[in-house]
């Protein structure tokens, strides 16, 4: 792929200095803020740490992220209430943890399904390569997804048309015969 065909610059290192254009600075702030909050959330999920992030925009608007809450972390930091894990609402924490567990399980299941689909797609591609053209019709249908099954159906239809044309050529001695060719991998 030639350098000139690239549409974007991709991920590049930038010089760390103040962005002079107000709009560019606000856009960068918004993107970086969401990235920081995402990383903070990942730290909480992976380690169970208590974390608090407070950021003020260039226009002075406050944004915050805290686990278990901003108040609990700030109280602990200021030693107002030094007891660890002082949750203002234990019911909320139980529900939040249950939701996190449910989302983690769903994520795990989706990753498993994705892996299975990748394996099936790879197997299907290998079975339909040019060198395996003689046995593409033996692909296990019960292991195919909808797209693969439709592709196989289209190949069968193309084969059927090809065979009908060849039979017509033989029956009519080549009169009015079509000069189609069959390519099952197309």
UniProtKB/TrEMBL annotation:
It is found in: Nucleus. It comes from the Eukaryota. PROSITE patterns: MADS_BOX_2. GO terms for cellular component: nucleus. GO terms for molecular function: DNA-binding transcription factor activity, RNA polymerase II-specific; protein dimerization activity; RNA polymerase II cis-regulatory region sequence-specific DNA binding. InterPro entries: TF_MADSbox, TF_MADSbox_sf. The keyword RNA-binding does not apply. Residues 9-69 form the MADS-box domain. Keywords: DNA-binding, Nucleus, Transcription, Transcription regulation. This is MADS-box domain-containing protein.
